[in-house]
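Notes from the pairing session

We agreed to fold both candidates in a single pass and log them together. This is the raw record for the first candidate, unedited. Please don't reformat it; downstream parsing expects exactly this layout.

Candidate A
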Amino acid sequence: MIHGLRFRGSGIRLFAALAATAWLLASAAGCQGISPEPEFPTPDPHALIPPPQLVTGTADLSVWVPDGWTAPIVFDEASLEISVAWANRGSAMAENYSIVLTSDGNLVYRWDKPLLAPGSERVEVISLNDFPDLYLLVQGRHELELIIDPDAVVPELDRENNSFSLTREFNFQLPDLRPGPPAAANWPGPVVIGDSGLVYGRFDGGADRGYYLAFGVAFHGDGKAQAWPQQHSIEMNDYQINQWEFYYDLDSALSLGDVQVHAVPIWKVAVGGQPLILGDQRFKLIIDESNAVFESDERNNTLAGVVRLTPSRARAFQDEPDAGGATVHPVYAVPAGALDEQWDINGAIESIVADLQTWLRERTGGRGIVWDEADGSLDITFIRLERSEANLAGFPNSWEPVAEELYRRGLNDPNKVYAVWLPSVREGSDTLICGVQTEYNSVSFSFSFFKRTDGNANICVEQPVTMLHELFHAFGAVAPCAANYVSEDESLRSAHVDDDPNDLMYSGDRFGIPIELDNGHDDYFEHDIPGCVDTADSPYLESLSQR
């Protein structure tokens, strides 16, 4: 431990590639229980005290051994730090020079222009956590050398005391990341598919439970070794999912044996690659794919295997009996002859609803939508439509015959809003229509569309936001009395706002990302416009007492 002021100078690094041993050993020079380094030989007097007869106006840079140190170079293999020290024992300022630390003649680090007054000392510290690319230069057996003013810029009394070297086996404690399940979880392996109960051990309500593809990253190694930043990816269903898609704990201070859980809602897998059909799913997991973390063993960062996708629920062909009241009932409708991608039983709709609920709760003080549930799970109805997609395409508004059929087949409760996922997309004259809200015989239907292109990727991939937008139309947004109401006669752009492109209910030509729920609260949610519909009063939203 070094007491006193420590400087972290700006430096220039040379990224050399040296072959070096990278095995973990728990040792630290000068620490309790560790054999100390051999005593540093008696330094040259110029390194410690001013010469008896100073030459006025001349600096004298030298290596220096602070109290408690064994040499001008010390290191802590647990905290991953290397410290160096030097002094100016002359009578003039030392400036415009550099200090270099080398390993077997290769540059490890360089400090430029470290100004040093007469009779003063300086300590610099390199943290290998800050510069993990330096590990190879100092791990294993090496000769480290500290050189003061290698370019002889400063006029000095004595240059014989400007360097010091030591040779030894360095064993800095490196981390090791590898796939692994959480210790307390009931996972069959490092990769699982399941609801929040399996993935997180958290038992949420039906609408909030979700369904996830998840994997664990286990941390091994000394607790002081940096294992961040990490960037992982997993490929499944012919689709590579990268780090930014996952929910995960950002804590970089991992301890030995800790496991970080990374989870992605399964709907993102369902829309991203091949149709996600129940059964075995092949995956390839890559830990730290950019090699940002220097590890003791890089060979265990890849895992390929199979994970089984089981039904998230039993398929239902009708709305299950319930107590009545205002609810939103989810529906998965598939045109005749079209591929059944099993969104009602592969977790896709459950995970869309959970994401939608999370988005809304974060902006309403905890209020979500009141969803129709049965036996503690979402009550999702599967309907195989009578018409094919080609037949539906012959209608000016392809969703209207679908709403008529759903109504005719029993989805006609006036107290319910029907949230319908339909694998059929209509392309308008100037836009792609990913969702729409309509009514049939005073029963409201909110549609979210999706469709695969020739390359299997889906269009209309922002499923939670699309459905939430259409549901808020069903709840009454946006009324003509709103401050920023915008409408076009006989247009799908009717009943929106135009003030903020980032608003959930925005319609216009400006680019935005839907992150706001009635920005300013002056249009459709928690506004104070007398006599104007406020969706905050909708019976389809939970009251605070229901939370």
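Candidate B (folded immediately after A)
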Amino acid sequence: MVCSWISAYKNDLLPSPNNVTLRFENMFSLRWEWEMPANFQKCSWSFISDVKTNRKPPPGMVKSSNLFRQVDIHRVDLNNQITFNVQAECNGTSSKWSENSVLIIPGNNTCVKNFACFWFDETYMNCTWEPTVDSVRATEYVLHYWRKNGSSTSEGKINRSVKFDQLWYSGTPCQHYIYKDGIPLGCHFKTVSEKNLFLMVIRDKSKTIRPFITSVKPEEVVKLSPPVIINKTRTPNHSIYVEWSTSFQPSCLHINSEIEITSSKGKVETVEVPKCTFTRELNALPELTYTVRVRVRQSSTISSSLFWSEWSEAHDIKGTEDNTTFYFLLILIPISVSIVTIVILVFLKRLQVIVFPPIPDPGKVFKKSFGDPSDLQQWIKYGKVNVSSKPVKEEICSVILVETPLFSSQAE
């Protein structure tokens, strides 16, 4: 009988796993289960399973003799389709793949987008989101969450028989919403531990839009406060010295820094600073002005977070070109003001003549119309003046004709 089984395996008649199903082992673990035909139970089975999801990196392939596989919810994208494949092996022979695809929350569009959580300075955590186009009218958002502390679930334990669509209302509701324009678009968590794992579901009260479900590990979303630049100056060799500090208290060995320097010519350079270093001397040209700013993040030795803090306030370090410009402006501005003043005065003078023309002198007008008044005064003072014309005496001149006698020689 055993020989017949082996012959069947070699002829690729090994049956594929069947009845592949998915359920929640708890709120933080998915469990796929399958079966094999009863008449093949005497074989030493092994199974290769593969989980395909949008989350990177995916869980990948696993080989096991169990008829189930569990996957942490943090390793899958719960808002999109999850595909599970399983294959049986026996004595070096493999069956065909069995596939199971499932959408945890059915529907087309979720009610939120751009969901993000940040654990600020390892003190408090804010999770925020934006409404989608389809959910503009859904102004009443509700967030429920489940918290797992290490290997134990401290909140939101569930009954294993509960269906998916019944789970999303069994969690702890958000206690401190973050509002924007009167709409709850975030949740504030006052107490958070690096060992926590959160499962969150966001929906609208009307239940008309597909909920959004996600998981969050605080240790992966640490974001530090921006550093403060406490000193920036030029050294005698014209390089730039920058010093900064951060409010994050753990050892400096756990802090990575990055400094950005921008010259007045627009060249931008970013420099990574070694751990435990909060100063940097940068090469610079003496004539150029530079702008510097700094940001920090936790080292990978203590955190898997890849998030940088916001940039610090930008600071300028002046160059010698600024002094030249200053003296040039110091000379140019007074000259420009003087020229403008002269132009304005000339313009105002001409404007005054146009707007307020001079009043004519009545004496000049009378003189032009009736002559010079001084002549009248002379006439009154010295009596009558004979203004008639004296007769002109005509002289009569007589004309005498003188004839010259012709000489005899001429007459001939």
